[in-house]
Amino acid sequence: MSKFWALGKASNSLIVDGERTLNYSQLDTEVQSALSNLPKKKQLIAIVAHNSLPFVIHYLAALRGGHTVLLLDKSKGKEQHQVMLTQFHANYLIDGDLVSHLDPDTVTLAPEIALLLGTSGTTGREKVVKLTFENLTSNCAAITQVLPISKTDCAMASLPFSYSFGLSILHSHLLVGAGIILGQESLMSKSFWQQFTQHNVNSFYGVPFSFEILFRLGLQRQPLHQLKYMAQAGGRLSGELWEALKEFCGSQKLPFYAMYGQTEATARMAIMQPDDFLAAPAGAIGKALPFCKLYIASGEKEGELCFEGANIFAGYASSLEDLRECEDSTILKTGDVAHQLDNGMLQIVGRIKRIAKLEGRRINLDDLERQLNQQFNSSCVITSDDKQLRVFICGSELGVEKQIAEIAQCHHRNVKVFNIETIPRLSNGKVNYNALI
């Protein structure tokens, strides 16, 4: 199976990082040079995941050398990075062009482990997902089979590389030999759209929060006419946003690929083709990637969604000991609750852990969030400890406990409302519920 880190596709496409530009041949030379400075014996190499050429070069060099890469989220400070370095006994730390040899001790690492990625739910002692070389190659190959990526394409790689979806965009474009524009800029910045236009970017990848920003900016005011397609992953789009995208993409004849995935499945597990998207309800996830399988565990119309495929992770790790072996998992229980539609398509309706039980009644917090966001003019998110619903509302909604209780079908004493200025988010754009506990 093709390895994206081999850069095997001859291509004239460019990797652009600000003023610095490399073609694929030049990138390959840089990767080989970086590889020559790494030891031949497998090591644990921590790399701060900047969206930059130095990161891409060192990351590909480490994979090419058969090492295990521990990716560090650039949005976290050095103190948190140090916790990870100490916890896993990293041999090297690479931050930009700076390479530091940390721990000379030889560590025993499972030869299959290629990458360690944090999960969006990690709290306290760090826990990472172990991904193998086969996980990376199989998922990357499947993605390039279902998305129309070609050598002549160019994508903005603006999602964090410490996030599995952002990283998979890099992988798939490298495998095909497509152009990649690296950047730290927000969608809100003029610089983002200047680069977008200058380099004739013809695909747009985003998480739900990315599309929320895009709508705030005004779809018609952005240079989206040059797009070949749009693609989304990283969580469920709100019903309102889903319908707005259907209307916009349908009117513009712009293909939209809605995708579903998890870090534990090396980024992506399912994709909905554009024609299906235009007819599907919010939360529908399409079909499993090639050579993979998605199904409801109970065999009923609704229940926990399970996944099978070569991209299932090799287990979690919270210590060096956990890196000595790989778990052989054939089934991934996603923790998502899915509903089977009449046409056989699956629809995500919530998370098992996002089901509260108040006074003996089960309440789907994700579904309730969607209802409240439609009810109020302000954005809101919900947490619960099975005794009380805690509703966080952006703005100054007052005296709405009874209204919320009526929608949730619970007593108003079980509802507590907090007014907040902004909804806290993780670097991947998802709601940081832990910050609201």
UniProtKB/TrEMBL annotation:
Pfam families: AMP-binding
Keyword Transmembrane: no
A GO BP entry: fatty acid metabolic process
AMP-dependent synthetase/ligase domain segment(s): 15-316
InterPro entries per record: AMP-dep_synth/lig_dom, ANL_N_sf
This protein's UniProt keywords: Ligase
Coiled-coil annotated spans: none
GO molecular function: medium-chain fatty acid-CoA ligase activity
Family per similarity comment: Belongs to the ATP-dependent AMP-binding enzyme family.
Protein name listed in UniProt: AMP-dependent synthetase/ligase domain-containing protein
Species whose genome carries this gene: Pseudoalteromonas peptidolytica F12-50-A1
Organism placement in taxonomy: Bacteria, Pseudomonadati, Pseudomonadota, Gammaproteobacteria, Alteromonadales
